[in-house]
Amino acid sequence: MRVIIVGGEELVYFLGRLLISGGHSVSVISKNPEDCSEIVRQIKALVICGDGADPRRLEEAQAMRADAVIAVTPRDADNLAVCQIAKHRFEVPRTVALINDPDNETLFKDLGVTLVFNQTRMISSLIQQELSIEDIVNLLPIKEGKVIATEVRIRETHACAGKTLVEMALPKDTLLSVIIRGDSVIIPRGDTKLLADDTAVLISTPQAQGAALRKLTGE
């Protein structure tokens, strides 16, 4: 897959490195000459110094052959412009944008951005969960937050400790997908018991998450 990343700083480096390690072809457009020099030094990518919202720079990056354009600049307006130009001028099939202002999410979707990552909402959700339930050690929004993967450390005092999945009766739209017990990974069934010190991975919709966590922790 051919991917163009527009932005700078460490986020572009790490994203580019991951994509390249997955076998994808990566081009980078960044306004910052220092970022460009650093990216050229660190990863094997075509790097263009300039404004990613300038059609000429996207053309240099061969946007007409790209499978996806990812806009991760610090400015929402720039990210939207990059995605719009990529989609309408170069017919790039997938556009991905990072946004900082949650109020912009609906606008980006209405204007046809394929995938929107709401940075503020993700961080806010993580902080709220960490503050409210100390045994939640990880929170990962999936598909723009429509599904959430929550990692929960099971304590002896939790309501689910010693119970099977059937006995717990998790609410609708939730799934306990994995249990990590020491060095073992368990795919649970109805008769699988949760034990103290297990780590459980819960998949749920945002609406069902709270009720499912209460079933597990009793809090």
Could you explain the architecture of this structure?
The chain is an alpha/beta fold and about 220 residues long. The protein has two domains: about 1-120, NAD(P)-binding Rossmann-like Domain (Rossmann fold); about 125-215, 2-Layer Sandwich (Alpha-Beta Plaits). About 35% of the residues lie in helices and about 25% in strands. It is built from eight helices and eleven strands. It has helices at about 10-20, 35-40, 55-60, 75-90, 105-110, 120-130, 165-170, 205-215; strands at about 1-5, 25-30, 45-50, 70, 95-100, 115-120, 135-140, 145-155, 175-180, 185, 200-205.
Jot down its keywords.
single chain, 219 residues, alpha/beta, Rossmann fold, Alpha-Beta Plaits, six-stranded parallel β-sheet, five-stranded antiparallel β-sheet, 8 helices, 11 strands, 36% helix, elongated
